[in-house]
Amino acid sequence: MKGKIKEKNEKIGYLFVTPYAVFFLAFTAYPLFFSFYLVFHRWDLLTAPEFVGLKNFSFLLHDPDFWQALLNTLVFLLIHIPLQIFFAITIAMILAEKIFARTFFRAAFFLPVIISGAVVTILWQKLYSTDAGIINHVLLLMGLAPVNWLTSPKIAMPSIAIMATWKNMGFYIILFLSGLLNIPQDLYEASKIEGASRWQDFWRITLPLLKPTMLLVVILSTLGAFSLFIEPYVMTGGGPLNKTMSVVLYMYKQAFLFQHMGYAATIGFALALVILVFVLLQKKFLGAETEY
């Protein structure tokens, strides 16, 4: 009798698992294996895939546009992550205190996260406008010269990094705020008795105990930086002079503008390898012992 009940429960379990298994096979496993198949083929969406061996890899290694896109992405990452961490942890520490309208401000900082990325990008594109943008208008009122935020090769990518930081900062504020609220207050009380300043509390208590949260924020920010697409796609199209062309945007153009599906798949796997290396290095330097 128990054996029949167990067998019946197993069948019911398989029944519940089936929808997820179908979803996983259709939208994760199949695209992954098909992308790997395309790495070794040339395919233009119209004709049958043609086997080319390692030619896609060879072209990738000698493609200056890919390396420029990777460099642009690294520039974005080097600007975006420090800004993200600095402002997120600073605002989180303020919101952890008993300030006026604390709940309102917590919700307000998180609001940009849930707004459509395209909407936010268009909004900032208007703000950055050279002739009619509010930012340049304020600069003119201050007696300063307007800035070509999105048309200068040197300034365009930092401008996008600032916008992306504003867009995503609310999510990381919540993570840091959660970490701050989990720090035992007894530690701060004992430190106060010993005469430590708030700055010493930050370096000796807050920052070390936020290490797991810091690692999580850095990894998530890195994944987000390497996934940069909508911002340069809408604001600059990858220009000027390809200085805002991200790897994902370049992969998109190779796939859907030039129909180089095999090469686009190769770029995708190369990007995944780069992300893996960065994440492993971050875990090593920020605390490999941290587990989630």
Tell me what you see in this structure.
The chain is mainly α. It has 2 domains: 1-39; 56-287, MetI-like (MetI-like fold). It has 13 helices and 2 strands; from the N terminus they run H-E-E-H-H-H-H-H-H-H-H-H-H-H-H. It has a two-stranded antiparallel sheet. A hairpin with a 7-residue loop joins strand 1 and strand 2 (50-51). The radius of gyration is 24 Å and the shape is globular. The relative contact order is 0.13.
Question: Which helices and strands occur, and which strands form pairs?
Answer:
Layout (H helix, E strand, L loop, with lengths): L1 H38 L1 E2 L7 E2 L3 H7 L2 H32 L6 H13 L2 H11 L6 H8 L14 H26 L3 H9 L4 H12 L1 H16 L3 H6 L11 H10 L4 H27 L5
Antiparallel strand pairs: 1-2
Helix pairs in contact: 1-13, 2-13, 3-7, 3-10, 4-7, 10-13, 12-13
What key phrases describe this protein's structure?
MetI-like fold, single chain, 13 helices, mainly alpha, 292 residues, two-stranded antiparallel sheet, disordered C terminus, 2 domains
Structural class: mainly alpha
The named CATH superfamily of the largest domain: MetI-like
Strand composition percent = under 5%
Count of individual helical segments: 13
CATH topology of the largest domain: MetI-like fold
Helix content: over 70%
Strand order of the largest sheet: 1-2
Strand tally: 2
Mean pLDDT: 89
String of helices and strands:
HEEHHHHHHHHHHHH
CATH class of the largest domain: Mainly Alpha
Rg on CA atoms, Å: 24 Å
CATH architecture identity of the largest domain: Orthogonal Bundle
Domain count: the total is 2
